[in-house]
Amino acid sequence: MEQSDISDDLTTILVTEQEIRDKLAELARQIETDYAGKDVLLVGVLKGAVMVMADLARELRIPLSMDWMAVSSYGAGTKSSGVVQIRKDLDADLTGRHVLIVEDIIDSGLTLSWLLENFASRGAASIEVCALLRKPEAAKVHVECKYVGFDIPNDFVVGYGLDFDEKYRNLRDVGVLAPHVYA
Ligand code: XMP
Ligand code: MG
């Protein structure tokens, strides 16, 4: 059998591995300044944010903790339903904590706005969001996101944690999936 390369399934590369690395370093410097003297809790949203979390956390030179939450709002489709279900809750108690939510992508914003409300009710001292990608044209609700990597067009993207049918998360770049993959 011939070896296939998953990067052949992309039509366009939107953000390269190097661009991601540079951007996370830039965001990390801002975060270090903003959280100086504070103990920050990074909350990664599974599974998409795994790569961002791993790379951002290693860029940061301030004391931090990491926790994870798994939610689902999608079902099998590629459109957010707005109905969010907790699949794995946080281990940490948020009372008095400075929480920085780490997200792969803000699409409609529905998942994040639900999360922000949910976290606010748990008594966090502060809650901010860091998202690697954002699709401004897809926004259904406004969410305040203090740290944004890249604004991208309203296409379904994969790579660097983002999947199609659980695949492509291991691509190093972020790109648009080729039509032949859907067929
Ligand atoms: P919403 O629409 O609630 O989306 O802002 C939140 C979650 O949906 C996933 N998502 C994507 N996953 N390619 C993906 O692989 C995409 O283009 C895409 N858009 C949204 C993602 O998990 C995000 O956190
Ligand atoms: Mg996600």
Automatic annotation (TrEMBL):
It comes from Plantibacter flavus. GO terms for cellular component: cytosol. Pfam families: Pribosyltran (PF00156). Its cofactor is Mg(2+). Its main location: cytoplasm. Keywords: Cytoplasm, Glycosyltransferase, Magnesium, Metal-binding, Nucleotide-binding, Purine salvage, Transferase. Pathway: Purine metabolism; IMP biosynthesis via salvage pathway; IMP from hypoxanthine: step 1/1; Purine metabolism; GMP biosynthesis via salvage pathway; GMP from guanine: step 1/1. Gene3D superfamilies: 3.40.50.2020. The lineage of its organism: Bacteria, Bacillati, Actinomycetota, Actinomycetes, Micrococcales. Its EC number is 2.4.2.8. It is an enzyme of class 2 (transferase). It is found in: Cytoplasm. NCBIfam families: HGPRTase. GO terms for biological process: GMP salvage; guanine salvage; hypoxanthine metabolic process; IMP salvage; purine ribonucleoside salvage. Signal peptide: none annotated. Belongs to the purine/pyrimidine phosphoribosyltransferase family. It catalyses: GMP + diphosphate = guanine + 5-phospho-alpha-D-ribose 1-diphosphate; IMP + diphosphate = hypoxanthine + 5-phospho-alpha-D-ribose 1-diphosphate. This is Hypoxanthine phosphoribosyltransferase. InterPro entries: HGPRT (IPR050408), Hxn_phspho_trans (IPR005904), PRTase-like (IPR029057), PRTase_dom (IPR000836).
